[in-house]
Every structure is written in C-alpha cells, then in structure tokens.
Amino acid sequence: MPVRLALLTALAALVLPAAAARADNPVLIATVGVNDGFNISLKDANGQNVTHLDPGTYTIQVHDLSTIHNFHLSGPGVDEATDPETTSDPTWTVTFTDGKYTFQCDPHRTVMHGSFTVGTVAAPVPATQLRASVGPGRTIALRDANGSRLTVLTGSTSVVVAVNDRSRADNFHLIGTGVNRATGVGFRGRATWKLKLAAGKYVYRSDRHKALRGSFTVSTS
Ligand SMILES: [Cu+2]
Question: How far is the CA of 86 from the centre of ligand 1 (A)?
C-alpha cells in the first residue's frame, strides 16, 4: 500500500502541473465540415470568429467532422493539420506570436479558408461597402451601406462598390486618385468593383450627360 501511494503521489506530481497549465490556456474551437458542408471556422470561447489574438499559448479543440475535409492551421511557429480522409477531434496546444495565421481545408483551400492576426499585427479593417446607381431616368448616386448619399468616406479605404447601371443612355464613371472605372454607356446591368481609394476627392458621373454627377471626399486622418 505505501508503495502504491507513493507511486500515486509521484504520478500526480508529474501530471497535475501540465493539466493545470493546459486549463489556464484560452480555448479556441476549430471546426470543419459540419454536415459535410464546405465550412470551416475558428471561434473563441464566446462563439465569436477569431480575428485577432494576444500572443500566448492556446488550447485548440479541433472538430474535423468530415471525411473529405481537414483543418490545417499554420503561421509563425505553428503547423498543425488533421487528416482529410478521416474524422478526428484532437486537442492542439499552440503558441502564437506576432504575425498572421491562416487556417484552411487543404483539398479546398481556395474556398475554405480564414485568417487572423496576433499581437502587434493589426487585424485587417473590413472593406467599406458602397452602392452606385445610375438610372432609371437622369439619376446618379453613390450611397453607403445605410443608403445615405456618400459625401465623406472615413474608415477603411478598401471599398467594394456594387454598381447597378439601370440606364442604356448613361453610365457610371468613377474617377479619382488611382481609380478610373466605368460601366458602358449602352450597358445595363450590375458590376462589382473592388477598389483601393486614397485621401482626396473622387467624382462620379455619366459620360453622356455631364450634368449627371456627384462627388465625395476620402478622409484618412
Ligand atoms: Cu474541404
């Protein structure tokens, strides 16, 4: 009996510090292939998508739920992956340092991927969504996500412009620093422009009717 007790004590001494350290690490949940779908996510303990983390050691509970997908996490000092051909629920202990990390399903990396930043590397600011319209009739407008006419753009200078050209007599033409994009005058339909704007004034107009115009200012200060 004393021998067994001593052994237990020795085992406890070996096991407990590691278990305690693991319990202290923030927990992240990595999931891929819910219902065999083409989905992949990395969430924090509150269920929020991870976009930025403090440097440190984390416990990642992985749920690879599919036999066609895998979860592959990589970045500075980290390269962990599950097997695409099997399901598995491993727990990874990883240490993140300043930098950008990505996760993906290797067989479908172009459509199943995500990323986050750690430490001093700032999280990317999401693009500003804008809606451009011309027609019907002699109307032209550029609106923000709330539907208000854009006069001053602040925040992200990466913009996604959803253009709805509803006129065969006019076009939507956006001009300013680094940008010169237009739909065709005879064109009617939709277009999506991903643009990088700079501080200064931008003008949008119809090339057919010059009075049909508007402008906005990009403020980066
Ligand atoms: Cu996949």
Answer: 12
How confident is the model over 72-104, as pLDDT tens digits?
999 999 999 999 999 999 999 999 999 999 999
Ligand 1 centre distance from Cα of residue 87 (Å) = 12
pLDDT digits (tens, 9 = 90+) for 64-76: 999 999 999 999 9
User: pLDDT tens, 24-39?
Assistant: 899 999 999 999 899 9
Q: Which of 216, 65, 63 is nearest to 143 (CA)?
A: 216
Domain boundary among 118, 147, 168: 118
Domain end among 87, 118, 149: 118
- Would you say 118 and 103 are in contact if contact means Cβ atoms under 8 Å apart? no
Query: What distance in angstroms lies between residue 71's CA and the mean position of ligand 1's atoms?
Result: 8
Q: How far is the CA of 70 from the centre of ligand 1 (A)?
A: 6
Distance 1 CA to ligand 1 centre (A): 54
Q: What CATH number is attached to the domain comprising 49?
A: 2.60.40.420
pTM higher than 0.90: no
Range of the domain at 42: 2-118
Q: How far is the CA of 69 from the centre of ligand 1 (A)?
A: 4
Taking CA atoms, 212 is separated from 85, 104, 138, 182, 192, in Å, by 58, 46, 7, 14, 21
Q: What pLDDT, on the 0 to 100 scale, is given for residue 4?
A: 54
Domain count of the fold of the chain:
2
